[in-house]
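Changelog note: in this version the structure field was regenerated for every chain. One regenerated record is shown below for reference.
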Amino acid sequence: MQAKIPAHRYSLYFTAPGQVEIRRERLPELEAGKVLVATLLSAISPGTETLLYRGQFPQDIPVDENIEALAAQFSYPLKYGYSVVGEVTALGEGVDATWMGRRVFAFHPHESHFVSQPADLMPVPDALSAEQAVFLPNMETAVNLVMDGAPRMGENVVVFGQGIVGLLTTMLLSQFPLGKLITLDQHLLRRQTSRQIGAHASLEPDASHPRTQILVHLPEGADLTYELSGSPAALNQAIQVTGFAGRLVIGSWYGAKQVSLDLGGYFHRSRIRLISSQVSSLAPELSGRWSKARRFNLVWQFLGRIEPTRFITQQIPFRQAHRAYGLIDQKPGENIQVLLTY
């Protein structure tokens, strides 16, 4: 039985640096071929959304031209968010009745209700909770990072940044028969968590002597390094700790922050390969056999096998979203993954 369709919904907007608002808006009409979704949970991306919250985003480019719900330009006021789990509560004319009552995932901004085409939704497997499913985008990113880095047996790997993407990447890397897996993060909670999930050591970054710090553990440097901290300064540090002919995967999005690279010293003679990794596409060398659908199937499996809900540190009511963003911005050492509940 269909639920009563509300006349309005509540949507989160970034309105200025340091400001978010929950706005009441008229809900779009439920047209033929579409469904209404009532949101259960949405996950805040602490990296990307902190840049938006601080106003550190590039101007006049699409937020994400690959996702219809995120096709707007980067400018205030801005709806954002890309990890929503909800329940289908009403069907437009012509929609298969089996969609009714389904739990679904959507790449969609934070809001209480939304109207969508079924093709833009992914049914959540029955074996997974909404809390597990809401990690889908970050787990997909972690899978993509590992695929792009292509770790080999016995390699020594270093990961800069143990936010949610860094921790999920570390969890996946810990499944490989590596030599050593070393992580770095400035926050104690994240370093402790990193060791619990498989890092051989998790260090507080020494910005003055990063190479010396890593060489204690890896005398020849890293075979494979990941820069996932979101800090432009960390990219130079990652270059310095990567060994001769090593690979450096850059997964951070720096927004409008400029990156000043030192390519005249250690890098020049070390034959280091810099690899750009972004989840919206597949590496060309993989696209012959891999598709996004195949990658998503793998991600769903990992969400069931590797319990990501351990990374949830706070669940905050949607109407109090300003608290969530203030916490992420001002006290990053006290949170890993913050969820909004509806």
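Spot check on this record: The two ends are 21 Å apart (CA to CA). Residues 172 and 301 are 12 Å apart (CA to CA).
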